[in-house]
Amino acid sequence: MNTTDIPALAEVSIEPMGQSEDHERAVQEAIDALRRSGLEIVPGAASTLLRAPLGQVWDAVHTAHTAVQPYAERVVTNVRVETRRDGDDFAERVAHHGA
Hints:
Elements: E1 7-17, H1 23-36, E2 40-43, E3 48-53, H2 54-68, E4 74-83, H3 91-95
Antiparallel strand pairs: 1-3, 1-4, 2-3
């Protein structure tokens, strides 16, 4: 299996920093960019879960980060990634995100 194809679960938070004309819009742009990726996403109060092959997760995070850049002086993105090769598809954790 190619490493970019390994099933992954990522928890992502993207934070516009500094002078921001519209913080709420910046966050919404990040969520919209993740939705446009076509990946399974589960938005939560402080972070969003992504479940997809690892390579697609990294691409989606990059796209969401750059979507926020026009709305803030700085953008900080925190990503926590778990990969598995044991067949677990993370469904239980995705179902409980933000619950």
